[in-house]
Amino acid sequence: MSAATACDTAYDGVGSIAAPLRAALSAASEDRIVYDLAGIEDGYRALLRELPGIDVRFALKACPVDEVLACLAGLGAGVDAAGPQELEQALRAGVPPARTHYGNTVKSDRDIAHAHRLGIRDFATDSLEDVRAVAAHAPGARVFCRLATSGDGALWGLSGKFGCPPADAVRVLETARELGLVPSGVSVHVGSQQMTADAWRAALDDIADVLTALGRRGIVLDRVNLGGGLPASGYLDRRGVLLVPPIDKIFAVLRDGMRELREAHGRHLGFVIEPGRHLVADHGAIRAHVARLAGRRGRDGERQYWLYLSCGKFNGLYELDALRYRLVFPTFPTFPAFPADRGTERVPAVVAGPTCDSDDAYCHDHTLTDVPRDLASGDPVWILSCGAYATSYTTQGFNGFAPLPYEAWGR
Ligand SMILES: *Cc1c(COP(=O)(O)O)cnc(C)c1O
Fold first, then answer.
1. Is 80 in the pocket of ligand 1 (CB under 6 A)?
2. How far is the CA of 158 from the centre of ligand 1 (A)?
3. Span 128-151, mean pLDDT?
4. Does 197 sit in the ligand 1 pocket, CB within 6 Å?
């Protein structure tokens, strides 16, 4: 591999980071993950401006941090939870039960009964078996049926395991009615970090088909749940190129789809969205440090730099399977803007995490990243756009590398 494959978008200068996040990162003298609550709040308000009147149910798994939940709940958001533990965390953080839904189609009888005791009344479903269990263990509850999507266009497709075709959704919701449940809605999830507006267009078409078929059977739903999948804007793809989602186009498709569904199926129709990563990813960052910048000769005899960091796949950066993160080296504040930072040469390196696992690298094909040659062991490194799925996808302490402590910064 040659230096020519090294990529120039893999880092930003210190100045490109939002001020509160920069302050939190600068203040950290030990490794941690920091969340910018003001940034999350601004993102939430921006989302409501794009999709007026929509009800937000934050997907808790994206950031199971009490301060983040309390912040969003205070702004009027609810939560999409996947099981009893997440439901309890949401309620503890102050999310009202009426704004907390059980959004997982996978649940045991016991989980359903537990949720029902907690006062949860909205349940996702996608099979006759599950809807019968909800009727038995959460009598009278409201159910929304998840439609399958292809997952095309997303970094993580989520296809196959969840949802059913439109015809089956009609059957499931009819059964719900027969069993004394309230058939309240349909939902989709077009795949996480969905990069195309077409995915929502296709999902909206399926939703329209289900509403029409149900209408013929005298079933009128009150909500359409557009699910998760809204992208973040600060990731790099596996080659190190900034992933720029067509976010304006996505919102335009959603607005058009909502208007058309209301025109065809009644003004009463409400809309829900379950963003996870979109609300938090770009408002969290990790302060890690350099373990070592080392030059080693590989099996082919070629010398290669490796930058080993204190944080990797098992303690915060699990999603390295599909993307890369922008790195900032605050010891070299203008890096990589040369020649402003004279004296700092850049060298192409494979960036990797600290564990004894070869998957713990910033890029599976070992694409190179330019880094300052003068990095010393202990120098801080800031890893941007890791506010989503970092704390939830962390191991107990693989190789003893413990989960990162977190800090949430308010206004
Ligand atoms: C994970 C999940 C979400 C959030 O997905 P993002 O891609 O982070 O927006 C929303 N809804 C459900 C049901 C989920 O499982």
1. yes
2. 9
3. 98
4. no
The tokens for 263 are 């025109």
Task: Note the pTM of the prediction, 2 decimals.
Answer: 0.95
**Residue 175: predicted pLDDT:** 98
β-bridge mates for residue 236, sequence order: 242, 324
Q: Is the CB of 274 under 6 A from ligand 1?
A: yes
Q: How close is the Cα of 335 to the center of ligand 1, in Å?
A: 35
The pairing of strands 32-36 and 55-59 is unpaired
- pLDDT of residue 132 exceeding 50: yes
Taking a C-beta distance cutoff of 8 angstroms, is the pair 199, 229 a contact? yes
Paired sense of beta strands 284-297 and 32-36, if any: antiparallel
Strand spans (E) along 266-365: 270-273, 284-297, 303-309, 327-328, 346-352
Grade residue 11 by pLDDT with cuts at 50, 70 and 90. low
Q: How far is the CA of 93 from the centre of ligand 1 (A)?
A: 19
The residue whose two tokens read 């533990």 is: 85
What's the half-sphere exposure (Cβ side, CA atoms, 13 Å) at 309? Answer: 29
- Say whether pLDDT at 24 is over 50: yes
pLDDT digits (tens, 9 = 90+) for 27-43: 999 999 999 999 999 99
- d(Cα 95, Cα 41) in Å, to the nearest integer? 16
